[in-house]
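Bumping with the actual sequence this time:
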Amino acid sequence: MSDLPFTLDQLRILKAIAAEGSFKRAADSLYVSQPAVSLQVQNLERQLDVPLFDRGGRRAQLTEAGHLLLSYGEKVLSLCQETCRALEDLQNLQGGTLIVGASQTTGTYLLPRMIGMFRQKYPNVAVQLIVHSTRRTAWSVANGQIDLAIVGGEIPSELQDSLEIIPYAEDELALILPTSHPLAKIETIPKEDLYKLQFICLDSQSTIRKVIDQVLSRCGIDYRLLKVEMELNSIEAIKNAVQSGLGAAFVSVSAIEKELQMNVLHKSQVDEVVVTRILSLIYNPNRYRSKAAEAFSNDILPQFASEGFTKAKKELPPQELTNLDEQIHTATVG
């Protein structure tokens, strides 16, 4: 086959339709007309001599051939973006793009501060923050769509051999109470008093909720006996609910710094109970590493990571310490 039966524009259109679920929304997202999108798809199907979409339903559904082309097309487009960014690097950080990923809590409260510091030092580098679940973020890193990410959940087992996964920082999940709550006046709460509180939690399937339940169980607290007043789908909603006097909650300390300064929430200490999780830095060592990603690793990551690296090293078995030292050097030096 001397000529490719598709163009990059056609692959972009195919990807947009698959993501948006309709030709019209795909056209809007690409800032082109719907007839132009339809014509490109018709040409592509004619060139490949296979149908790519099942047009019987209300939503544009890919056929088996469509899924196959999309799978390879995404890899092609990712490599094209990687090529463009490598060429931009020739300008030596006078331009270019850094794409950082994060899971929900780190993306909402930690990464914006890190990106702000980076932008002050490198104002000509465009920075994009993509916040999704740990699983989706890890796949984006593996596929080269994200340079590096900081996540709090478990990396999919099928990606653990292809990604560098480095313990990065310790995240404390603190018990917060309304400032008017009687237990807010006590310096250390007996852990048995947790059973007396009404809790506001994330969904039982959320990563943070699972970590909290596991740690409480290790500390001798039966989390199944805790009174869960309500489940909400965001940390901000939980903070507002606690502030309004509706109950208590465990949230990341990074999420309540402003509220603690304003004295609208109370952070409580629980006797013999410390709830923490390890945040992980992940990147794909087999993908091109841009100068912007190296600069972010050199100048920003170490400022938030030193305690986390030290803590993680202490918790690893001796045979893994040498490997971790090499990984830390790679992540922080570039």
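The tokens above came from a reply further down the thread. The first helix runs from residue 8 to 20.
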